[in-house]
Amino acid sequence: MTAEDLQDIITAGLACEHIALEGDGRHWFATIVSPAFEGKRLIQRHQLVYATLGQKMHTDEVHALSMKTYTPAEWATQQA
């Protein structure tokens, strides 16, 4: 799986204002900014992202995904 493939999958299921991916095809690190994260705890945010991947985590197409998740407001403070 390429970074573009993974980005397409995530953005098809989650509205993202920013997404950056690094990885080797099976192990990935993502930075994701989405308004859907508003009012959600960290685990809930990660569950939203994992839900977009569906069976791809279970079939080992994506072996590992580490992520940092931000709301747009949180992301703005990171960029300041």
TrEMBL record:
<comment type="similarity">
    <text>Belongs to the BolA/IbaG family.</text>
</comment>
<protein>
    <submittedName>
        <fullName>BolA family transcriptional regulator</fullName>
    </submittedName>
</protein>
<dbReference type="InterPro" id="IPR050961">
    <property type="entry name" value="BolA/IbaG_stress_morph_reg"/>
</dbReference>
<dbReference type="InterPro" id="IPR036065">
    <property type="entry name" value="BolA-like_sf"/>
</dbReference>
<dbReference type="Pfam" id="PF01722">
    <property type="entry name" value="BolA"/>
</dbReference>
<dbReference type="InterPro" id="IPR002634">
    <property type="entry name" value="BolA"/>
</dbReference>
